[in-house]
Protein backbone atom coordinates (compact mmCIF):
# COMPACT_ATOMS: atom_id res chain seq x y z
CA UNK A 1 0.00 0.00 0.00
CA UNK A 2 1.13 3.53 -0.70
CA UNK A 3 1.86 6.13 1.95
CA UNK A 4 -1.25 8.07 0.92
CA UNK A 5 -3.39 4.99 1.61
CA UNK A 6 -1.92 4.57 5.09
CA UNK A 7 -2.50 8.26 5.81
CA UNK A 8 -6.11 7.93 4.61
CA UNK A 9 -6.65 4.92 6.90
CA UNK A 10 -5.17 6.76 9.88
CA UNK A 11 -7.28 9.87 9.29
CA UNK A 12 -10.44 7.79 8.80
CA UNK A 13 -9.70 5.89 12.01
CA UNK A 14 -9.41 9.09 14.04
CA UNK A 15 -12.62 10.45 12.53
CA UNK A 16 -14.53 7.21 13.16
CA UNK A 17 -13.30 7.07 16.77
CA UNK A 18 -14.29 10.64 17.67
CA UNK A 19 -17.99 10.05 18.49
CA UNK A 20 -17.00 6.98 20.53
CA UNK A 21 -14.56 9.09 22.56
CA UNK A 22 -17.19 11.71 23.40
CA UNK A 23 -19.89 9.20 24.31
CA UNK A 24 -17.59 6.83 26.24
CA UNK A 25 -15.87 9.58 28.28
CA UNK A 26 -19.28 11.01 29.20
CA UNK A 27 -20.50 7.59 30.29
CA UNK A 28 -17.24 7.02 32.19
CA UNK A 29 -17.83 10.10 34.35
CA UNK A 30 -21.45 9.06 34.87
CA UNK A 31 -20.46 5.57 35.99
CA UNK A 32 -17.69 6.91 38.23
CA UNK A 33 -20.50 8.57 40.21
CA UNK A 34 -22.16 5.19 40.62
CA UNK A 35 -24.87 5.65 37.95
CA UNK A 36 -25.26 3.22 35.06
CA UNK A 37 -26.98 4.92 32.11
CA UNK A 38 -27.66 2.51 29.26
CA UNK A 39 -29.45 5.23 27.30
CA UNK A 40 -26.34 6.48 25.46
CA UNK A 41 -27.63 5.28 22.09
CA UNK A 42 -30.92 7.13 22.53
CA UNK A 43 -29.22 10.34 23.66
CA UNK A 44 -26.86 10.17 20.66
CA UNK A 45 -29.76 9.84 18.23
CA UNK A 46 -31.62 12.80 19.76
CA UNK A 47 -28.42 14.85 19.73
CA UNK A 48 -27.85 13.90 16.08
CA UNK A 49 -31.28 14.99 14.89
CA UNK A 50 -31.44 18.17 17.01
CA UNK A 51 -27.92 19.22 16.02
CA UNK A 52 -28.72 18.60 12.37
CA UNK A 53 -32.04 20.47 12.39
CA UNK A 54 -30.65 23.50 14.22
CA UNK A 55 -27.55 23.51 12.02
CA UNK A 56 -29.62 23.41 8.81
CA UNK A 57 -32.13 26.05 9.87
CA UNK A 58 -29.67 28.45 11.52
CA UNK A 59 -26.76 27.94 9.15
CA UNK A 60 -24.46 27.65 12.18
CA UNK A 61 -22.91 24.36 13.19
CA UNK A 62 -21.87 25.89 16.51
CA UNK A 63 -25.51 26.51 17.39
CA UNK A 64 -26.28 22.99 16.21
CA UNK A 65 -23.68 21.52 18.55
CA UNK A 66 -24.91 23.60 21.49
CA UNK A 67 -28.48 22.50 20.78
CA UNK A 68 -27.37 18.87 20.56
CA UNK A 69 -25.64 19.13 23.93
CA UNK A 70 -28.75 20.70 25.45
CA UNK A 71 -30.91 17.93 23.97
CA UNK A 72 -28.59 15.32 25.46
CA UNK A 73 -28.75 17.04 28.85
CA UNK A 74 -32.57 17.13 28.77
CA UNK A 75 -32.69 13.43 27.89
CA UNK A 76 -30.29 12.66 30.72
CA UNK A 77 -32.42 14.67 33.14
CA UNK A 78 -35.37 12.40 32.35
CA UNK A 79 -33.16 9.47 33.29
CA UNK A 80 -31.87 11.30 36.37
CA UNK A 81 -35.30 12.15 37.74
CA UNK A 82 -36.46 8.57 37.34
CA UNK A 83 -33.39 6.86 38.78
CA UNK A 84 -31.83 9.35 41.20
CA UNK A 85 -34.93 11.03 42.61
CA UNK A 86 -37.61 8.36 42.12
CA UNK A 87 -35.20 5.43 42.56
CA UNK A 88 -36.30 3.54 39.44
CA UNK A 89 -34.17 0.64 38.24
CA UNK A 90 -31.23 2.09 36.33
CA UNK A 91 -30.88 -0.73 33.80
CA UNK A 92 -34.56 -0.76 32.82
CA UNK A 93 -34.73 3.04 32.68
CA UNK A 94 -31.62 3.26 30.51
CA UNK A 95 -33.01 0.73 28.05
CA UNK A 96 -36.30 2.65 27.95
CA UNK A 97 -34.39 5.87 27.30
CA UNK A 98 -32.68 4.29 24.29
CA UNK A 99 -36.01 3.15 22.84
CA UNK A 100 -37.55 6.54 23.54
CA UNK A 101 -34.63 8.37 21.91
CA UNK A 102 -34.77 6.17 18.82
CA UNK A 103 -38.50 6.79 18.37
CA UNK A 104 -38.34 10.51 19.17
CA UNK A 105 -35.45 11.14 16.76
CA UNK A 106 -37.21 9.22 13.97
CA UNK A 107 -40.40 11.25 14.48
CA UNK A 108 -38.72 14.65 14.74
CA UNK A 109 -36.34 14.07 11.84
CA UNK A 110 -38.67 12.39 9.35
CA UNK A 111 -39.00 15.54 7.18
CA UNK A 112 -35.21 15.98 7.17
CA UNK A 113 -34.29 12.43 6.17
CA UNK A 114 -31.63 12.38 3.46
CA UNK A 115 -31.25 16.16 3.42
CA UNK A 116 -27.57 17.19 3.24
CA UNK A 117 -25.80 19.82 5.32
CA UNK A 118 -22.52 21.67 4.90
CA UNK A 119 -20.40 19.57 7.23
CA UNK A 120 -17.68 20.64 9.61
CA UNK A 121 -14.57 21.67 7.69
CA UNK A 122 -11.06 20.64 8.61
CA UNK A 123 -9.10 23.37 10.37
CA UNK A 124 -6.15 24.81 8.50
CA UNK A 125 -3.37 25.56 10.95
CA UNK A 126 -0.77 27.84 9.36
CA UNK A 127 2.59 26.13 8.75
CA UNK A 128 1.62 22.95 10.64
CA UNK A 129 -1.10 21.85 8.20
CA UNK A 130 1.32 22.29 5.29
CA UNK A 131 4.03 20.03 6.71
CA UNK A 132 4.70 16.92 4.58
CA UNK A 133 3.18 13.72 6.03
CA UNK A 134 2.91 15.10 9.59
CA UNK A 135 0.57 17.86 8.46
CA UNK A 136 -1.76 15.36 6.79
CA UNK A 137 -1.62 13.03 9.80
CA UNK A 138 -2.14 15.45 12.65
CA UNK A 139 -3.33 18.85 11.45
CA UNK A 140 -6.14 18.22 8.95
CA UNK A 141 -9.07 17.51 11.28
CA UNK A 142 -12.14 19.51 12.25
CA UNK A 143 -12.51 21.22 15.61
CA UNK A 144 -14.54 18.40 17.20
CA UNK A 145 -11.71 15.91 16.67
CA UNK A 146 -9.32 18.14 18.58
CA UNK A 147 -12.09 18.76 21.09
CA UNK A 148 -12.29 15.02 21.82
CA UNK A 149 -8.58 15.00 22.70
CA UNK A 150 -9.05 18.06 24.91
CA UNK A 151 -12.01 16.33 26.59
CA UNK A 152 -9.82 13.32 27.37
CA UNK A 153 -7.22 15.47 29.11
CA UNK A 154 -9.94 17.37 30.97
CA UNK A 155 -11.61 14.18 32.23
CA UNK A 156 -8.24 12.65 33.15
CA UNK A 157 -7.30 15.72 35.19
CA UNK A 158 -10.77 16.07 36.73
CA UNK A 159 -10.95 12.49 37.98
CA UNK A 160 -7.38 12.21 39.23
CA UNK A 161 -6.38 15.72 40.29
CA UNK A 162 -9.38 17.88 41.15
CA UNK A 163 -11.18 17.94 44.49
CA UNK A 164 -14.57 17.68 42.76
CA UNK A 165 -13.40 14.66 40.79
CA UNK A 166 -12.10 12.86 43.85
CA UNK A 167 -15.40 13.57 45.62
CA UNK A 168 -17.31 12.17 42.64
CA UNK A 169 -15.22 8.99 42.76
CA UNK A 170 -15.82 8.70 46.51
CA UNK A 171 -19.56 8.95 45.93
CA UNK A 172 -19.32 6.22 43.31
CA UNK A 173 -17.53 3.97 45.78
CA UNK A 174 -19.53 4.63 48.95
CA UNK A 175 -22.50 7.02 48.65
CA UNK A 176 -23.70 6.38 52.21
CA UNK A 177 -20.33 7.27 53.69
CA UNK A 178 -20.02 10.30 51.42
CA UNK A 179 -23.46 11.51 52.50
CA UNK A 180 -22.58 10.98 56.16
CA UNK A 181 -19.60 13.33 55.88
CA UNK A 182 -21.64 15.99 54.09
CA UNK A 183 -21.07 15.36 50.38
CA UNK A 184 -24.10 16.13 48.16
CA UNK A 185 -24.55 12.67 46.67
CA UNK A 186 -27.67 13.26 44.60
CA UNK A 187 -26.55 16.65 43.29
CA UNK A 188 -23.20 15.20 42.24
CA UNK A 189 -24.88 12.27 40.51
CA UNK A 190 -27.20 14.63 38.66
CA UNK A 191 -24.22 16.64 37.42
CA UNK A 192 -22.43 13.50 36.29
CA UNK A 193 -25.53 12.25 34.44
CA UNK A 194 -25.99 15.64 32.76
CA UNK A 195 -22.34 15.69 31.69
CA UNK A 196 -22.78 12.24 30.17
CA UNK A 197 -25.88 13.46 28.34
CA UNK A 198 -24.07 16.50 26.94
CA UNK A 199 -21.22 14.31 25.68
CA UNK A 200 -23.65 11.86 24.06
CA UNK A 201 -25.47 14.77 22.42
CA UNK A 202 -22.30 16.17 20.88
CA UNK A 203 -21.30 12.66 19.78
CA UNK A 204 -24.59 12.32 17.96
CA UNK A 205 -24.27 15.76 16.36
CA UNK A 206 -20.81 14.78 15.11
CA UNK A 207 -22.40 11.84 13.27
CA UNK A 208 -24.98 13.98 11.47
CA UNK A 209 -22.82 17.03 10.70
CA UNK A 210 -19.28 15.72 10.25
CA UNK A 211 -18.93 11.96 9.86
CA UNK A 212 -21.99 11.68 7.59
CA UNK A 213 -23.31 15.21 6.92
CA UNK A 214 -26.98 14.31 6.68
CA UNK A 215 -29.73 12.95 8.93
CA UNK A 216 -30.61 9.27 8.56
CA UNK A 217 -32.92 7.46 10.96
CA UNK A 218 -30.96 5.23 13.36
CA UNK A 219 -27.65 6.58 12.07
CA UNK A 220 -25.81 5.88 15.33
CA UNK A 221 -25.88 2.20 14.27
CA UNK A 222 -25.04 0.82 17.70
CA UNK A 223 -22.21 3.22 18.49
CA UNK A 224 -23.85 4.03 21.82
CA UNK A 225 -23.60 0.38 22.82
CA UNK A 226 -19.97 0.24 21.70
CA UNK A 227 -19.29 3.33 23.85
CA UNK A 228 -20.82 1.54 26.84
CA UNK A 229 -18.67 -1.51 26.13
CA UNK A 230 -15.60 0.73 25.83
CA UNK A 231 -16.00 1.89 29.43
CA UNK A 232 -15.85 -1.71 30.62
CA UNK A 233 -13.09 -2.52 28.13
CA UNK A 234 -11.09 0.38 29.56
CA UNK A 235 -11.78 -0.73 33.15
CA UNK A 236 -13.00 2.80 33.88
CA UNK A 237 -9.71 4.50 32.91
CA UNK A 238 -9.82 7.53 30.53
CA UNK A 239 -6.60 6.67 28.68
CA UNK A 240 -7.81 3.18 27.90
CA UNK A 241 -11.11 4.65 26.68
CA UNK A 242 -9.17 6.82 24.24
CA UNK A 243 -7.02 3.94 22.99
CA UNK A 244 -9.99 1.58 22.83
CA UNK A 245 -11.98 4.09 20.76
CA UNK A 246 -9.16 4.28 18.23
CA UNK A 247 -8.94 0.49 18.20
CA UNK A 248 -12.63 0.11 17.39
CA UNK A 249 -12.45 3.03 14.98
CA UNK A 250 -9.63 1.23 13.19
CA UNK A 251 -11.65 -1.97 12.94
CA UNK A 252 -14.57 0.00 11.49
CA UNK A 253 -12.35 1.64 8.89
CA UNK A 254 -10.49 -1.51 7.91
CA UNK A 255 -13.73 -3.29 7.08
CA UNK A 256 -14.44 -0.46 4.62
CA UNK A 257 -11.01 -0.78 3.01
CA UNK A 258 -10.93 -4.58 3.04
CA UNK A 259 -12.73 -5.11 -0.24
CA UNK A 260 -10.53 -2.53 -1.89
CA UNK A 261 -7.56 -4.64 -0.86
CA UNK A 262 -9.00 -7.55 -2.83
CA UNK A 263 -10.45 -9.57 0.06
CA UNK A 264 -13.33 -11.64 -1.26
CA UNK A 265 -15.36 -11.57 1.94
CA UNK A 266 -19.11 -10.83 2.04
CA UNK A 267 -19.78 -7.18 2.90
CA UNK A 268 -22.26 -8.24 5.61
CA UNK A 269 -19.49 -10.12 7.42
CA UNK A 270 -17.16 -7.14 7.22
CA UNK A 271 -19.87 -4.80 8.51
CA UNK A 272 -20.31 -6.85 11.66
CA UNK A 273 -16.57 -6.83 12.49
CA UNK A 274 -16.66 -3.80 14.87
CA UNK A 275 -19.46 -5.38 16.91
CA UNK A 276 -17.86 -8.83 16.83
CA UNK A 277 -14.62 -7.25 18.05
CA UNK A 278 -16.55 -5.61 20.90
CA UNK A 279 -17.97 -8.96 22.02
CA UNK A 280 -14.62 -10.74 21.77
CA UNK A 281 -12.82 -8.07 23.80
CA UNK A 282 -15.49 -8.09 26.52
CA UNK A 283 -15.39 -11.88 26.75
CA UNK A 284 -11.60 -11.84 27.12
CA UNK A 285 -11.69 -9.16 29.81
CA UNK A 286 -14.56 -10.75 31.76
CA UNK A 287 -12.74 -14.08 32.01
CA UNK A 288 -10.92 -12.59 34.99
CA UNK A 289 -13.42 -10.93 37.36
CA UNK A 290 -10.59 -9.20 39.20
CA UNK A 291 -9.81 -7.20 36.06
CA UNK A 292 -13.32 -5.76 36.05
CA UNK A 293 -13.63 -5.27 39.81
CA UNK A 294 -10.27 -3.53 40.01
CA UNK A 295 -11.62 -0.14 38.95
CA UNK A 296 -15.40 -0.61 38.82
CA UNK A 297 -17.20 1.81 41.16
CA UNK A 298 -18.55 -0.22 44.06
CA UNK A 299 -22.01 1.38 43.94
CA UNK A 300 -22.41 1.22 40.15
CA UNK A 301 -26.06 0.72 39.25
CA UNK A 302 -27.21 0.95 42.86
CA UNK A 303 -29.68 3.61 43.89
CA UNK A 304 -29.16 5.88 46.90
CA UNK A 305 -31.60 8.07 48.77
CA UNK A 306 -30.46 10.26 51.69
CA UNK A 307 -33.57 9.37 53.70
CA UNK A 308 -33.13 5.62 53.28
TrEMBL record:
GO terms for cellular component: plasma membrane. Pfam families: BPD_transp_2. Keywords: Cell membrane, Membrane, Sugar transport, Transmembrane, Transmembrane helix, Transport. The chain crosses the membrane at residues 6-23, 35-56, 62-84, 91-113, 133-159, 192-216, 222-239, 246-263, 269-286. The keyword Kinase does not apply. GO terms for molecular function: transmembrane transporter activity. It is found in: Cell inner membrane. It is a multi-pass membrane protein. CDD domains: TM_PBP1_transp_TpRbsC_like. InterPro entries: ABC_transp_permease (IPR001851). PANTHER family: ABC TRANSPORTER PERMEASE PROTEIN, SUGAR ABC TRANSPORTER INTEGRAL MEMBRANE PROTEIN-RELATED. This is Simple sugar transport system permease protein. It comes from Hydrocarboniphaga daqingensis.
Amino acid sequence: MSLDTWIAIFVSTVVAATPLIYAALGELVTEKAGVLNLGVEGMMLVGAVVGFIVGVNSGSLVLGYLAAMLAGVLMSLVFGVLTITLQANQVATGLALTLFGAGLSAFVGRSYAGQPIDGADALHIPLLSDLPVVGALLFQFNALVYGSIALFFAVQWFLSRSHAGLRLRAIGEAPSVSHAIGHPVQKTRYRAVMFGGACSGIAGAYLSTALTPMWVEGMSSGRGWIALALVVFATWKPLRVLLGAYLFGGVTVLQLYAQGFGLTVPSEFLSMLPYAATIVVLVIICRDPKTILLNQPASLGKGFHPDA
